Request: fold
Amino acid sequence: MSTAVATAPARPRPRPRPRRVRPARVILHGFLIFMVVAWLFPLAWAIFTSLRTYGDTALHGYISWPANGLTLVNYQTFWTQGNVPYYYLNTLVIVIPGVILTLLMASMVAFCCTQFSWRFNLIVLMIFTAGNLLPPQVIIVPLYWMYLHTPIAMLGSIDIGNFSFALFSDNNLLYDQYIGIILIHVVFQTGFATFVLSNYMKTITKEITESALVDGANVLRIWWSVILPLCRPALAAMATLLFTFIYNDFFWALILISHGNKRPITSALNNMQGEFFTNNNLIAAGAMLACIPPIIVYVLLQKQFVAGLTLGSTKG
Amino acid sequence: MTTRTAARAVKTPEAGALVAQRRRRYSLLTRHDKLLLALMVGLPLALDLILVWGPTLASIGLSFTNWDGIGNLTVKNFVGLKNYQFMFTGYTLFWPAFQHNVIWLLWLTFVATPLGILFAVLLDRDIRGSRIYQSVFFLPVVLALVVVGFIWTLQYTPTDGFINNAFGLVKSGNIIDWLGNPRINLYAILVAASWRHIGYVMILYLAGLKSVDPSLREAARVDGATEVQTFFNVVLPVMAPINVVIVVVTAIESLRAFDIAFIINQGKNGLELLSILITNNSISEASLVGFGSAIAVVLLLISLVPIVAFLSRVMRTLA
Reply:
């Protein structure tokens, strides 16, 4: 809008004169470019360090031109000795069901609370939203105890190499299980997703649901084949955002999983400190491997990502 | 309109107009539908109550006990306010941790958030490359805080880190231990946390600025206001809803702070935070469930301030 207003009077001019460079603009771009360099530097430095051998940096110092060129050897070491493929797999086993279940649950609640005028709509939405805003540490002590004392069925497992993915539980508990970690992610993130999706669904007129009811559809059918397709943009944005949130989690996995080989990549990094990370070059390679998937998602789906974040805030 | 009349005609042909109008929506739902709806809300709600709100209340209850998490909880475990008394007067880590959370909050509020807003205001104007600048500033937001911590470790480590080497402190022997010195390490990790927070604030604020009616600014300019005056007197007031969101986001972030401090040194030696004290006391080390819960209650009470502020602001529009 603002650009249209600003440029409209300029268009009818017959000959576009060369743009006068205003000093204010130069200073602005100078400042912004300086900031961009400052912003990218820590990341660039991590990449640079990760691509050098320890021998090279030990001999010449970290601030030096790589004598033997750049190499992927740190990544190789980390990839094979650090069991990185399994940690990626652990992450996937947690993130994919986590995102899907969160979206299903949140969209159900948002559908019920925005398409029908119940008396408790507001209080339900408040319970979900407020729950998501709590610091996780407030609930962790009783939650940890619950996870240690909730019986869960053992239903076998899928074995891949040294790693075994339990279908429900391999110790009859929620603690130290994929299902436990998925569950807390789903419940916690449903709060946020419900809030955002309700904001979105509010804009869908109730008459759509009403006329579908008149046509004889039941509510489950309306939710699934009428409302969800209308929410596709919001669902895509939320899926992108939830992927990153769950992928980046550290706290739940740290406390609710005890076996290192069940940890997702972000909290596995913490375990590798000390025993495996013997130098900055390896730390850099590890950090890079952990952040490549979210960066890829961001580069491919930047629009969705930003939309997800702002959907919840601007309409409020 | 047509569907409404149709609905009334189909479902309640003879009912009085008023009653029909009031019951219209409900009359369309069969018992089966109502049951389904109850399940669709009830299942997620039950999970939320059991796994989030139940533990919240349990934390409050446990904070009055000396329970260790093993064996049964009995009346004998009730100790009244003893945990709180010890926390406020005898436990040497509580006030430093509290102070660190306050510093975290003040830093994010008065350093990081204003910078994010500044970026948003600068990039909201019609400048070349705005999208590229935005993408760069936003990039750290997608990174896990753990990864942010590791990336900044590479800057801060005493002999191998970039900063000490770049300023010649390693050569001259004046090494600064950025992460080990308890007087400065909190600020060192706050820089890392801000790297991520600023982009987040910028994106939220940009979305808000886009929704400001451009004619308002136009009017201000016609009246002779400078850009700075326009921002503070025109734009900022109409952005009130987004300002609340940003203040809340900032406050919640500060109270949740955990990851970076934990991976640097498990939250010790200058990096104590309330969130870390809770887990250290009741899960990792001592199994002091009651005492850890008391710290959790303090964190809960502080968190309720931004949470209530957010709900009262935002829920009006959701109704």
Remarks:
- Residues 23-71 of chain A form one domain.
- DSSP finds 15 helices and two strands in chain A.
- Residues 29 and 35 of chain A are 10 Å apart (CA to CA).
